[in-house]
Specification:
Radius of gyration of chain A: 24 Å
Largest interface: A-B, 35 and 35 residues
CATH topology of the largest domain in chain A: Aminopeptidase
Oligomer: homodimer
Structural class of chain A: alpha/beta
Strand order of the largest sheet of chain A: 1-11-13-12-14-17-15-16
Chain lengths: 464, 464
């Protein structure tokens, strides 16, 4: 038995070895990482985008500047072609700085809130009402008419025991997206949502919400409250009646008419299979708070860096490598949907799309949505990534903007950076350039360029 | 052939599977991570240590406070035993804030420096001299007497293309440790060393230096210059003669008599093999800049957390688990050496020592110094760590403080956190509590507790 095991280990190793070890590939990856870490441009680009343009909400003037800047920078790279693809984006404005207070008979407590993206304003004088705290949308539904005239306070915390913070986000973000819609149905006058934040601090986190099919009179103003504010409000609510506790908030946000915008696109034409298109991208829009440095300035500059590295290292791709900087991810994906619709119309063959939209942190691996054959091929490249501490190759991933490109046999990938710090910054004033580490950003860009290089070199497996 | 390969893969998988998958262990690890992430104390401890005690250089009053605090906190955990182990530590003081200027005939440029630990002072009026820039110790030796009367400027940058930043540090830190010794031998009047920093900023990085066997008149003052300062100085040196460039610096540091100090130790006695000792530790001292949060406040509180988790989860170890908070790592390891000497004298059997001294960043794995059998055993636990994104199990590691405990067949380990950000903070004013992410710190503690749990459960392999 022992001999069989040893033999089988040996054979197994030989099999794996012959599939994996490709000297040319490992040399190429080393050049890519060295280029990104020693002569990379991603960090300087991000500096400009964050500090000279800053927050760039869909439909804003800053978004226009970002589009012009990105096109200009791509133009300088000597790609085969750079262009703008028209799409329509919504236009919402936050208006004046929000105000919020917990009002009790013993005094008032100022707390930090920010309107959720898409929310209507309060009346000019704000909303003052009693508060009902719940931990889920289901609880709101169960309360039904009891929420009438009240402010619903959705306070389920992100579960800290999840290792991936995106899972903790997924487990709670329904409160933000749907809280106001459901509470409004039952006659609530406002919805206050605990910020999607694993830390306890004073920073409110915005993000999208949706009224669904609610009638006009069922649309209620909604805002995120900082986790510190949420903890205080919850504590004080324990003595609600004794305190005669009410909550006051005021916001002046506004939904304006849609605006013409653009996806920014550049490509290097493939030498052998120009009709096989490999997309790498991130979204150029951001929330209106902070500078959109991690979300998704990082993904934008990393995607640009992939094509710059190809040009700089004179890698002549077999297939067409296209960078797409999507418009309006945050407010309903119209950039991603528009891009996919035009690809469909033109019968373009998108074999691969790789997205970076999880922050500019140390890269850990990829999430991969593909058929089994392609997944296996990618997993066989694991050893090539080992020297760069890239270990995670999980099934599923490659989401929002590139999602509409999914076909039966193509491959979508999402870069997976370390997720622990992401929700310290996500959709807040704290998402600034200084929160991004140069090397972490650059390693991410190199990891993306390496994966694109391998996918271009070997193509994908399509069932016939 | 294909069938043989498939069979061999199958057999290989079965073998690995039976060795690896232990339901009880995976459940225990899950409990450990949940405890650390939801009820952990490491972050609050670090908050106190950083903000209420702060920098705690060996021999300082703050170090005494830190020792008293750590003992007090360990006393509260209900361990079998907590005690202080006397060791002697050096006592160096920085004195007044250093000053430095690049002096040219066109004007002066203020730059940021900090004295290196162990350096002597300049004269009261400072040192003003011409500068010779070199990229290595070898170059100083080659220049020989030509450095006489000059300030030697050691300006070899950390190589950015290394993936592990500790390798980039290892490739350059000889300049800091030995620059002044070698330059002093040849009659230089000062040594200015580029900070061990991969970023370009204004923060100087201190660290230890050594005069070796130099005679008194060969001991020269030495300081680190910020990377921005180093770049500027190097640039201006290109026109040295035209500029009539000199460098001025002034520092008032002082070497004082040795001081009595302590290692802080606590243990949970083993149920079955109490004489087999498993150590987990970090060093309680820090540099005098910043708050010593990453270096090594993080390692201290993570090590304390390991024992707290064992108590809280009622894990009754078979072997004795001992936390050791070492005195004076930064200034010559007298804590670690003293601990090992006493262990030797008492004929204690240290089978395992695990150190955390690479910052409180997202844990990636372990460096392991052991014989092959023990290494193989540890690698077989990989799948247990997979859900927590712990993938790196490399040979070699587990260094400074626990190094003196190395025996033929015992096991030393070092926690390996992600290293990208470490040298943004290392030995500087920037190494403060705010630079540590709560979840990253806690994941590190859980990873250490998990490894200690497995090593306690299965023991180590000793050749007979």
């Amino acid at each position: 038995m022992k001999i069989i095991v040893k033999l089988s280990i040996f054979l197994f190793c030989v099999t794996i070895w012959s599939q994996n070890v490709n000297k040319k590939d490992s040399t190429q990856l080393r050049s890519i990482y060295t280029e990104a870490l020693t002569k990379g441009r991603s960090y300087n680009w991000l500096n400009y985008l964050s500090k000279n343009i800053g927050a760039r909400l869909a439909g804003s003037e800053a978004e226009k500047k970002a589009i012009a800047w990105a096109k200009d920078e791509l133009d300088k790279l000597g790609l085969t072609k750079v262009w703008l693809q028209p799409v329509t984006v919504p236009h919402w404005e936050r208006g004046e700085k929000e105000e919020a207070r917990i009002v009790t008979k013993h005094g008032e407590f100022k707390v930090d809130i920010c309107a959720l993206g898409g929310s209507i304003a309060t009346s000019k004088d704000g909303v003052l009402a009693e508060v009902i705290e719940v931990k889920s949308i289901k609880e709101v539904e169960d309360l039904g008419a009891k929420v009438k005239g009240k402010i619903v306070f959705l306070n389920r915390a992100m579960p800290a025991d999840k290792i991936e913070t995106f899972r903790a986000y997924g487990a709670t973000v329904d409160q933000r997206y749907s809280g106001a819609r459901v509470a409004g149905k039952f006659g609530a006058v406002g919805a206050i949502v605990r910020s999607m934040n694993l830390k306890i601090d004073n920073i409110p986190h915005t993000g999208s919400m949706n009224y669904g099919e609610n009638a006009e009179n069922e649309k209620i103003p909604t805002a995120a409250i900082s986790t510190n504010g949420a903890e205080l409000l919850s504590k004080l609510l324990e003595q609600k009646d004794k305190m005669e506790l009410k909550f006051f908030f005021k916001q002046s946000c506004e939904i304006l008419p849609d605006v013409a915008s653009f996806n920014v696109i550049g490509e290097i034409k493939g030498l052998h299979y120009p009709n096989e298109i490999i997309v790498v991208g991130g979204h150029l829009d951001s929330w209106d708070l902070g500078e959109g440095a991690h979300d998704d300035g990082a993904g934008v500059v990393q995607s640009m860096e992939v094509l710059r590295i190809f040009k700089e290292l004179k890698i002549k791709p077999k297939r067409t490598i296209r960078v797409v900087l999507f418009a309006n991810e945050e407010f309903g994906l119209s950039g991603g949907l528009g891009y996919a619709a035009e690809a469909e119309k033109k019968k373009e063959n998108h074999i691969v799309a790789l997205e970076s939209d999880s922050g500019g942190f140390s890269p850990r691996g990829f999430g991969i949505t593909s058929n089994d054959k392609n997944y296996e091929q990618i997993v066989q490249w694991k050893s090539l990534f080992e020297p760069y501490n890239i270990h995670i190759f999980t099934k599923g991933g490659g989401g929002a903007d590139i999602g509409p490109l999914k076909k039966d046999n193509n491959v979508l990938l999402g870069l997976r950076p370390d997720s622990q710090r992401y929700f310290d910054y996500h959709h807040t004033d704290a998402d600034v350039f200084e929160a991004v580490n140069k090397r972490e950003l650059e390693l991410g860009a190199a990891t993306m360029a390496s994966m694109i290089y391998l996918l271009d070199t070997y193509g994908i497996k399509t069932k016939k």
